[in-house]
Amino acid sequence: MTAFSPARQLAFSALCAVEAGAYADAALDRALSQSQKQSQKQFKRRAPKNKKQASEKKAPSPAEAASSATAEHASAGHAPTGNLSIELSPADRRLATELLYGCIRRQRTLDALIDQFAKKPASQQPPKLRLLLHLGLYQMRYLDHIPNSAAVDTTVELAKSQGLSGLSGFVNGVLRQYGRQAEKLDEAGELLKLPENVVERIGVLHSYPDWLVELWRSQLPLEELEAIARWFNQSPTIDLRINPLVSNPDDVETALKAADLKVTRLPNLPQGLRLSGAVGSVKELPGFEDGHWMVQDSSAQLVGHLLDPQPGETVIDACAAPGGKTAHIAELMENRGVIWACDRTASRLRKLKQNAKRLGLKNIRIHEGDSTDQAQFVKRADRVLLDVPCSGLGTLHRHADARWRQNPEAIAGLAELQKKLLAQGATWVKSGGVLVYATCTLHPLENERVVEAFLQANSNWKIEAPRAESPAHAYVTEQGWCKVWPHRSEQDGFFMVRLKRCA
Question: Are residues 157 and 222 in the same domain?
Fold first, then answer.
């Protein structure tokens, strides 16, 4: 009898939540939290009721509890139908995370496999059955460390636990048919039947909507389409920005390597380090509690350097929360001057306050409000940062469901908001001052077109390209703005431009 798999049960539960409309990150956090709460309740029920019992019977370890729960469910012949009641091991948490995000990223490819190997297309399958097939096929196609037999057997048992015993034979048949045909292919072979059209082929093979592949095709050479599609399907690395007010890259790198972490320097970024491989809880890493560093992708670090704030200035961060760029500005200003951190969401501003306190930053002032209408800031700032809300198409590897949530209509609406924010933020800048407009998207409608429209309407503004010594200079285009293509430089996709008010 196949043992109950808590990681797969949790991943399936989170996938069902995403199918019902939840965001992937929130669904995973909720599933992990429920698992932990159920585990705690189970141990409380098993706890001895008096001191004599306590002295005679010690509490079971998580491993013993897992073994006991597995045995119970195996004897019953199925996995649990409700919430998990055991504490997940670190390995189970990693597997559950990989299965959830992987199945969401590869949704179109997995649907194409169902279309090919089942009698009915994926769109006509019952939602739970479709997600179960996603789980099994994902493991068989993408996870080399999991034997096909284990992927098949655990998926069949999971189907039974979800009240789909009558369809467990169908699940078994589809997965085993895929496995048999996959074994006949050589290493370079492709089992999936692909369209001839290049956009559709890349969309099916790498799992993206056609409109997104068309967007890349309009900006990149044809030979780079495959590269960017592959890049956004990889797991993200973790970049750190060292806080120069309390530490330095050498000391942080030494401490992290002493904790058996793989650490590399980020080129062109004086305070940047990158962590690769298994990291664990970020909050438990050396230096976190002491404010020696903050997690921030290398592309996001470029924005602060492009703004180039100086000690003693007045700076406004118009869309500040959760505060990564605000904190970087404060560090570059050496805790001197004033930074107004604006955002319309109180809960996100609380996160900013927590980060500022941990990092020892004292020149940040919080302002809750809508940055499309803040007349009190007119001509008060030496520099303004507008890191505007955007589609996030440069960070698809970090947000597994973003490729399916965004669409051209929603992006057109975002572009209108971005134009309003830029028009308002420009009024806050003193004559001779600087504004940096930045996004983490690669869509021209949110980037180049917004800036071009603004410059056409405001002749007293001009693009100011980054100086040669700026870390952002490596990404400057002939137009003067900076665009970071992730597959070329191994970092998040970003757009940023430095604008100067001439009068």
Answer: no
- Domain range for 331: 298-501
pLDDT digit string, tens, across residues 396-452: 999 999 999 999 999 999 999 999 999 999 999 999 999 999 999 999 999 999 999
**Range 483-488, long-range pairs (CB < 8 A, 24+ positions):** 483/442, 483/447, 484/299, 484/302, 484/394, 485/220, 485/228, 485/442, 486/228, 486/231, 486/232, 486/394, 486/397, 487/224, 487/227, 487/228, 487/230, 487/231
Domain count, the chain: 4
Q: Which helix (H) or strand (E) holds 130?
A: helix 127-142
> Where in the sequence numbering do the catalytic residues fall?
440
**pLDDT tens column, 204-262:** 999 999 999 999 999 999 999 999 999 999 999 999 999 999 999 999 999 999 999 99
Q: Report the amino acid identity of residue 439.
A: T
- Shortest CA distance to 259 belongs to which of 289, 287, 233? 287
Task: Give domain status of residue 281, yes or no.
Answer: yes
Residue corresponding to tokens 């520099």: 383
User: Angle at the Cα of 95 (from 241 to 110), degrees rounded to 5?
Assistant: 105
- Identify the CA nearest to 369 among candidates 361, 359, 357, 377: 377
Q: Quick check: 384 and 351 in contact, CB under 8 A? A: no
* Pair 36, 113 in one domain: yes
β-pairing, 314-317 with 338-343?
Answer: parallel
For residue 152, what pLDDT is reported? 97
Nearest CA among 275, 269, 271, 268 for reference residue 250 = 271
Q: Tokens for 87? A: 């504490």
Q: Which residues of 378-402 are buried (b: 16+ CB within 10 A; e: fewer)?
A: eebbbbbbbbbebbbbbbbbbbbbb
**Separation between Cα atoms, residue 431 and residue 502, nearest integer Å:** 6
Please state the pTM of the whole predicted model: 0.89
